[in-house]
Amino acid sequence: MRPTSARFLNVLVPVKRCVDYAVKIRVNPDQKGIDLNVKHSMNPFDEIAVEEAVRLREKLKDAVKSIKVLTVGPPKAAETLRTALAMGADSGIHIELPETAPAPEPLSIAKLIKASIEKQSEPVDLVIMGKQAIDDDAGQTGQMLAGLLGWSQATFASKVEVDEANKLAHVTREIDGGLEEVKCKLPLVVTTDLRLNEPRYASLPNIMKAKKKPIEKFKPSDLGVDVTPILETIKISEPQKRVGGTKVGSVDELVAKLKAAGITAV
């Protein structure tokens, strides 16, 4: 049973190693995936999540006891953890996969995070994570994690305020009609939107300190989770190249070209 009188908060931030946002994506020759032999970096939405966790501690001072970052991926994903540690996290968890293993699906990732939370010696009060990853754009893991844990959730957050004494969080969400404010009980899963904050750059001293911060390593089997994909990618193809437009001299000419292209009024 979770202690209700504890004032300290333990924060977990899942992060993902993705193809860098500035890299032009190219499809593999077999059309079953993309070329991964390119520069990788932390998913930008996860950078925002790490920054928010660090800002939360700066604001609440000693109320935040620990900030842990977690990643699921091949050995190279440890670099992503080190980046998050250099930004201000205290320790990391690396659920390591073989280099050639297929990328786990969102449900598998949510199950791994849940199992990691349950394995911690102290209860996790708050999970802050990106609303989506820029490689698959699924945007599902946070919601699935909250459902598996039975926790409150606040997605697409543009502002987060935590009342640690009463174990509450006030979250401003971005929705189609504008903004929505929700009050959630901790423990809570929050997914971050772009306008939540501007991530900091890690300083050289913090990068050096990050090399000494502890990282726990697990395999999915250690957590009792089967990450075998249940979906099969049939084919991936690049979008058709855009064709240049043409100018017309009159409305009649425009209508004639539309008819020639097989476009008719509804």
From TrEMBL:
Alphabetized GO MF terms: electron transfer activity
Keyword Manganese: no
GO cellular component, one term: mitochondrial matrix
Any single GO BP term: fatty acid beta-oxidation using acyl-CoA dehydrogenase
One Pfam family of this chain: ETF
PROSITE patterns reported for this sequence: ETF_BETA
Entry keyword set: Electron transport, Mitochondrion, Transport
Electron transfer flavoprotein alpha/beta-subunit N-terminal domain span: 30-227
Keyword Mitochondrion assigned: yes
Necessary cofactors: AMP; FAD
Principal place of residence: mitochondrion
Location(s), subcellular: Mitochondrion matrix
Cofactor detail note: Binds 1 AMP per subunit. Binds 1 FAD per dimer.
InterPro entries, alphabetized: ET-Flavoprotein_bsu_CS, ETF_a/b_N, ETF_b, ETF_beta_N, Rossmann-like_a/b/a_fold
Family: Belongs to the ETF beta-subunit/FixA family.
Quaternary assembly: Heterodimer of an alpha and a beta subunit.
The protein's role, per its UniProt record: The electron transfer flavoprotein serves as a specific electron acceptor for several dehydrogenases, including five acyl-CoA dehydrogenases, glutaryl-CoA and sarcosine dehydrogenase. It transfers the electrons to the main mitochondrial respiratory chain via ETF-ubiquinone oxidoreductase (ETF dehydrogenase).
Protein name: Probable electron transfer flavoprotein subunit beta
